[in-house]
Amino acid sequence: MMLDELLQQPLPQLLKERPYVRDFFAAMGIPLPSKGQRLGQVIDAVPAEQLTEFGLDRQELMTQFAEFVKQMEQFKAGAAQPVRTVTILGGCDKAGQPEEIQLELTVGDVVCVVGPTGSGKSRLLADIECLAQGDTPSGRRILLDGEPADESARLAGETRLVAQLSQNMNFVMDLSVQEFIALHAESRLVDDIDGAIEQVFATAVDLAGEPFTLATPVTALSGGQSRALMIADVACLSASPIVLIDEIENAGVDRRRALELLVKQEKIVLMATHDPILALSGHRRLVIKNGGIAAVIETSDEERRGLEQLNVLDRKLAELRDQVRQGRRISFDLDLFLS
Hints:
Order of helices and strands: HHHHHHEEEHEEHEHHHEHEHEEHH
CATH architecture of the largest domain: 3-Layer(aba) Sandwich
Distance between the termini: 65 Å
InterPro entries: AAA+_ATPase, ABC_transporter-like_ATP-bd, ABC_transporter-like_CS, P-loop_NTPase
CATH superfamily of the largest domain: P-loop containing nucleotide triphosphate hydrolases
Organism: Syntrophotalea acetylenivorans
Radius of gyration: 25 Å
Number of helices: 15
Family: Belongs to the ABC transporter superfamily.
Pfam families: ABC_tran
GO molecular function: ATP binding; ATP hydrolysis activity
Shape: globular
Largest sheet: 6 strands, mixed
Number of strands: 10
């Protein structure tokens, strides 16, 4: 919409369609009446002295307002840089040996990162998270659609390209679950805030397996509930095209359900894991040794058949875990379990 059209809109209609407009004028101490005027009339009524405090005249105010609306609409439409491929250019391992690899990941890829504790799995995820350009200990370079990311893309907070679920998670905000979800939904300019709250909350409870309420303070959530809330938040609200997951098996959540949620969107997913079910759920595995990528293993058809058997056993183990959680006596027959 052109600036002239915005200026002629009645304020109630403008604020209903673009509630963020209120923030622009609030930052300049310009009150917006709830009815009876058009935006152009409000701007005309602003004293010149007030505009001078911000180094503006009326025309510059309108120019900045038009640019603000343009950027907010682009953000709302998800106009952040679309990413179709991520390329990892090798650096060196902990011994300084060259990492001879150039690996391209495309939208829809699920890649697992495996290796012993301390081998450098988290370092690889961190390199991708910061879109490294040879400026990290590994010396790796990360390309987006074949090109290095510019500094604005690396540092932009409002259009983050990478969402990361780390092993360690602590809330420090004094908010309820409902307030936390609403805050994020508002920052994402979601139209249906109540719908977003309902979707994220229901997904989180389903993942956690332990009930909590919208009124529960986020600081009172258990570790599993916290991870479940953040997984649901990333799956339902995040627009980042790249998702990094660090050892989701330790989250105390339904990990297969969590993975299904995270990969159902058209994203590039990298997941550090020690879990064989998760490792075989990916299209390939990056084997990390001594800080470097030592091998890339494509998941074979035989491994996929093995994954089906592992899933059967995992469901039976889940049933036993539920019995333990409910304080019931465990009735266990190995032959029946393996049948």
